[in-house]
Amino acid sequence: MNDLQSFDARSGAAHGEPLRASTPESIDAAVLAAAAAFDTWGSSTGAQRAALLEALAAALEADREALVALADTETALGTARLNGELDRTAFQLRRFAAIATRGVPFERLDDPAVAGAPPVGHPAMVLQRVPLGPVAMFAASNFPFAFSVLGGDTASALAAGCPVVVKAHPGHPLLSLRVFGLIQTVLQAQDLPVGLVSMVQGAGVEVGVALVRHPLIAAGAFTGSTRGGAALQAEANARARPIPFYGELGSINPVVALPAALQARGGELATLLAGSIVQGCGQFCTNPGLIVLIDGSEADAFVAQLATALAAQTPHAMLTSGMRRAFDAGVARFLEHGAQALVQQPGSAQAPGPQLLQVSGAQFLQQSALHDEVFGPSSLIVRAASNAEALAVLAAVGGSLTVTLWGADTESDDTRALVRGAMAIAGRVLFASVPTGVAVTAAQQHGGPWPASTAPMTTSVGDAALDRFLRPVSLQDAPGWLLARQGRPC
Amino acid sequence: MNDLQSFDARSGAAHGEPLRASTPESIDAAVLAAAAAFDTWGSSTGAQRAALLEALAAALEADREALVALADTETALGTARLNGELDRTAFQLRRFAAIATRGVPFERLDDPAVAGAPPVGHPAMVLQRVPLGPVAMFAASNFPFAFSVLGGDTASALAAGCPVVVKAHPGHPLLSLRVFGLIQTVLQAQDLPVGLVSMVQGAGVEVGVALVRHPLIAAGAFTGSTRGGAALQAEANARARPIPFYGELGSINPVVALPAALQARGGELATLLAGSIVQGCGQFCTNPGLIVLIDGSEADAFVAQLATALAAQTPHAMLTSGMRRAFDAGVARFLEHGAQALVQQPGSAQAPGPQLLQVSGAQFLQQSALHDEVFGPSSLIVRAASNAEALAVLAAVGGSLTVTLWGADTESDDTRALVRGAMAIAGRVLFASVPTGVAVTAAQQHGGPWPASTAPMTTSVGDAALDRFLRPVSLQDAPGWLLARQGRPC
């Protein structure tokens, strides 16, 4: 029952033969192979890591045509988007290659001995980092390249010196197998242990649970639903030895649009926001699911503009029929809890129509059911009576990958308070544009307080994603031969 | 039943009147006051934070005589040690004052916009940090100054911009009250909100549980037993919004003494180690609880030397009668599980005699009961048949604050493997001296895989302790007025 099947996302029809789920024995074998690979990969040089990551990027690009076609069938995300995502995935691999080449995983803090009694005096200390060990990586459905088999988690873990056992996402099983095949070819070509990257698969929860419970797994990395991520985190915590679990879960990404911004460029912002809501059929972790407006004529005009712009959109099919059903259920739940429908475009069996709902600030604050993420092309407008109520709305959201603040260009008590409220709940605060689109760069922070992340001090996108897989270790009075390794673990 | 009583640790007699436990209402009031204080303290300047921390250090020193006398009565740790610990605590406060003055909490990573389409192009990003909010701080019994009301957790949280609600340790309630009184005086003198540091107390678990469950608590910091810390971590995870929980729990701190080191200076090392085992009556988180020897004549000689040196030691009274009973129970449990007694010095009602036990490597690997921490002046010798078995012993330990490796001065396959095995399970690896004594310095790492820490990527001692209370936030296209704050939150 745990076996899986590829589907054509646009038609919902089965695509190819059913695939067998990984057995407990094969999961165990994958982790054992990863642990064996760790013996050498954990002490590999930056050049070795970079060579692997570069070759993986090149392999993706070389197989682009077939990969994108397969991804398009399984996800319906469209070839333009998928080509762009493949570019991003290769960019990400190369960025971590450059990070490894620069020796970031081997950086040290040298703290020479200070003579005398404590607390001032201390022995010679060097702080460096060690890779954690085999990482259980749970691929996401909505980025079949960038957050999947060869995505940012895999790239950053490999750059850190950690083997990876990927739990493939059942939403794109054939693409996962094809990408995994590329990896195996590269590993063989570079004479690296094939256990350095393994893959397991299954439609149910059993495979992932078995993986995160395995005693030789040292960390988990997950991108997906709050429910699934919370369940896996509970498994990680329930182990005899709990392990770090980096889960990127739900996020509703409030957009706070202040009257000044709406007055100045409401029409433009409405178009921009409508595009962001339906982009990728709304299947982004940074999809703007909540629009907070301060009641007044600017808000009235903006809502009308947004409704018009959104009603004209035609989102493509969703990734899976399960997600399609969940979207309808989520919208229905909001309506049951008092949300007013402003746009309710009908959809097809696979592709939903865009939805725009509205509640008052007071309603939102009273109904915690309205705080849930609805994954897909919908957004909920909250009409706040005041800036103070808008702040209360942000506090009620509690945790989000992003908050967008339009109209905070001038300093005032109000804008300072809103910035404080936004920074208190989000990993990224935007002052222009829309939250969809997550730059792979040095200053990215893709993570935030629960439920955005199970580990809000970390990021799953950007250079610091590496840090999740490197644990600091202090060496006290280390011998010369060890210091001569310049931070490279034994 | 949750009320508490100060005891004279040397006699076990009650000291002063019983104290009332904090009520649910007073806990709530403390957290609300902390949340109110966060509104201003979260955006305080480095100079303001430094001024507070400096004044707190000075207040401790000014009241030294009375504080040390009270601490000595309640803990029996002795005035020499307690004066040194007070020095260390003041040093720690001043070190975090200097860190705040240098602007470390406000450090930013500037990532200017890059023109062009993604993945190369991206908007202007600045990565900075925000304080988490009110921290629930659980004081430890064994460092009545350095890991208690005004210890490193409080110092680093305040430097980060976070208010603190301290759960006092019931082992030194009067000292806690006196230190808390000093804090209140300093807060008033500096015209700071008294809610910036609050204190709650109680003998049972209810007070701590209520604290960590409070919705306005943003993080927990704990030093204590594995059982207590695990229970509080479970509470932190079970919240509607889980929060970071930094627990330093149990650690058995293996000392691996290779034959070469024992041959060269076995007598000296035996004396050093015996002193470390009984120092502070063995009540250190870095107490060497496991001694791993490679079987052979060097090991035989060293064990005899160590037994002689240890038998001559007379540890002082333990911190509490509960810990005294737990020590006897822990030693008895090891004996029940096949450990051989080498030194079994009788103790008194309050002060245990030193204990030295021994098992084979095979026994240790078979009996997980032998992997537990016994808090007090005892150590378990493991006679490993080979380096490979010594490595298996380290792997079975799994997580420790420290591993000490004596005799790894020369590079070889064996020493590389042992260093790898040590770094895989510890936050600090020592190559000389003993693990007791934890330098408060830049390159310290006081934390390790479970059960040493619930958050092994963080440290509770040293400069990076600050990082536990600052969450990264990326600002995208931030307005000029916000950038002009140079990393100081609104």
Written overview of the protein:
- Two copies of one chain form a homodimer.
- Chain A is of the alpha/beta class.
- Chain A folds into two domains: 24-249 and 453-483, Aldehyde Dehydrogenase, Chain A, domain 1 (3-Layer(aba) Sandwich); 254-430, Aldehyde Dehydrogenase, Chain A, domain 2 (3-Layer(aba) Sandwich).
- In chain A, 41% of the residues lie in helices and 16% in strands.
- Chain A contains 15 helices and 15 strands.
- The first copy, chain A, has helices at 24-41, 46-62, 64-75, 79-101, 152-160, 173-189, 206-213, 226-238, 259-278, 297-311, 321-336, 361-366, 387-397, 413-425, 480-483; strands at 109-111, 125-131, 135-138, 164-167, 197-200, 219-223, 245-248, 254-257, 290-294, 340-344, 355-360, 378-384, 400-406, 426-430, 470-476.
- In chain A, strands 10-11-12-9-8-13-14 form a seven-stranded mixed beta sheet, sandwiched between helices.
- In chain A, helix 12 (361-366) links the parallel strand 11 and strand 12.
- The two termini of chain A are 44 Å apart.
- The interface between A and B is large, with 81 and 81 residues.
- Strand 15 (470-476) of chain A pairs parallel with strand 14 of chain B.
Give the DSSP E fraction of chain A (strand runs of 2 or more residues).
Answer: 15-25%
How many strands appear in the DSSP assignment of chain A? 15
How are strands sequenced across the largest beta sheet of chain A?
A: 10-11-12-9-8-13-14
How many domains comprise the coordinates of chain A? 2
Number of helices of chain A: 15
**Gross geometry of chain A:** globular
